[in-house]
Amino acid sequence: MSDTPRIAIVGAGPGGLVCARILHNHGVPVTVLERETGPTARPQGGMLDIQAPTGQVALRAAGLFDGFLALSRPEGQEVRMMDRDAVMVRHFVPDAGDLAAPEIDRGHLRTLLLDSLAPGTVRWGHAVETTTALPDGTVRLGFSSGRSEIFDLVVGADGAWSRVRPALTGAEPVYSGVTFVEIHFDNIDHRQPDLARLIGPGTFTAKAGRLSLVAQRNSNAHVRVYIAFRGPLDWNAGLDPEDTDALRDRLLKMYEGWDESLLALIRRNEGPFVNRPVFVLPVPHTWQRVPGITLLGDAAHLMPPAGVGANLAMLDGAELAQAVIDHPTIEQALDAYEAVMLARSVSEAERTGEMLTTLMPDTDSIEPLFPIIRANRAAETGDLA
């Protein structure tokens, strides 16, 4: 980049922070604008499996791979899968030294990335509300405070409901037909030892047709459970979202006939039931170039939760930063970045959409899971033959 552009990254998630870190390492100034008031303003969610050909490539480019390894849990790659009768149908245990996709807490990864940036790079409490392309090729961001600021490059890294995306495309996320209801267990090894043994050190899944239970071990004996099902967006219609007992009763009716050891994950939940319907962007999702504006991660390609979202976001961020570094103008950088990112996002969105259909069909068979599992493992290791 011949001149020093004014660059704003909207959103302090993994993709935006990787992009900022690599630009910072190459002496390119960047500002990250985040609507949250601080790094601890809200919980950062569960675990991420950081995959060798995507997320790990990005962290290496950012010079943070060793820091990631120090925080990661390779044992978290273990997968246990049962049917509704609690019969084990698959059990994957990673070999010693297997680093295909180690798990890391989202919060730990975000802290690693934030700590790698110069103080003041992230402006907390800066909620972007509008993004406007100006005739001279610059971009004006309008904030909820009423202020505005001009930049040469604006990167929308602000997730599913991006405030930058409308400047490029009218596409909006749509409901996929699948909902996740999240619950959690703290100190599970001591307070719920039978559930701890059932789940194991990694990811546990029980499945029958359109219904699934997914449990994931986090650090510090914390477990997140996702009650996942194909159904209407208003599955909880008529219920008070704060009425835990009523929500539990409705969910238990949906899972009637499942083994009691599995239903215990619903019966003994700690805290509220958190409704998380799965939204996706249309496929393909592309746009005509608007000077000085681009997207990465979920803002560009919101997909079903199949273990690729954060990985692709970080790879997007790394590739965008490198394109800015390698090219003399912003528009040349965006040409290079979007040519690769958009093609990849279309193929990945198609793949994850097929996975969601296969994993959540209107059938009680579990057999369709096995080719999907094999394909996922190949993607994690980079062995796509």
TrEMBL record:
<keyword id="KW-0963">Cytoplasm</keyword>
<dbReference type="GO" id="GO:0004497">
    <property type="term" value="F:monooxygenase activity"/>
</dbReference>
<dbReference type="GO" id="GO:0071949">
    <property type="term" value="F:FAD binding"/>
</dbReference>
<feature type="binding site">
    <location>
        <position position="42"/>
    </location>
    <ligand>
        <name>NADPH</name>
    </ligand>
</feature>
<dbReference type="GO" id="GO:0005737">
    <property type="term" value="C:cytoplasm"/>
</dbReference>
<comment type="function">
    <text>An FAD-requiring monooxygenase active on some tetracycline antibiotic derivatives, which leads to their inactivation. Hydroxylates carbon 11a of tetracycline and some analogs.</text>
</comment>
<feature type="binding site">
    <location>
        <position position="106"/>
    </location>
    <ligand>
        <name>FAD</name>
    </ligand>
</feature>
<keyword id="KW-0547">Nucleotide-binding</keyword>
<keyword id="KW-0274">FAD</keyword>
<dbReference type="InterPro" id="IPR036188">
    <property type="entry name" value="FAD/NAD-bd_sf"/>
</dbReference>
<dbReference type="GO" id="GO:0046677">
    <property type="term" value="P:response to antibiotic"/>
</dbReference>
<dbReference type="Pfam" id="PF01494">
    <property type="entry name" value="FAD_binding_3"/>
</dbReference>
<protein>
    <recommendedName>
        <fullName>Flavin-dependent monooxygenase</fullName>
        <ecNumber>1.14.13.-</ecNumber>
    </recommendedName>
</protein>
<keyword id="KW-0503">Monooxygenase</keyword>
<feature type="binding site">
    <location>
        <position position="49"/>
    </location>
    <ligand>
        <name>FAD</name>
    </ligand>
</feature>
<dbReference type="InterPro" id="IPR002938">
    <property type="entry name" value="FAD-bd"/>
</dbReference>
<keyword id="KW-0521">NADP</keyword>
<dbReference type="InterPro" id="IPR043683">
    <property type="entry name" value="TetX_monooxygenase"/>
</dbReference>
<keyword id="KW-0285">Flavoprotein</keyword>
<feature type="domain" description="FAD-binding">
    <location>
        <begin position="7"/>
        <end position="340"/>
    </location>
</feature>
<feature type="binding site">
    <location>
        <position position="298"/>
    </location>
    <ligand>
        <name>FAD</name>
    </ligand>
</feature>
<comment type="similarity">
    <text>Belongs to the aromatic-ring hydroxylase family. TetX subfamily.</text>
</comment>
<keyword id="KW-0560">Oxidoreductase</keyword>
<comment type="subunit">
    <text>Monomer.</text>
</comment>
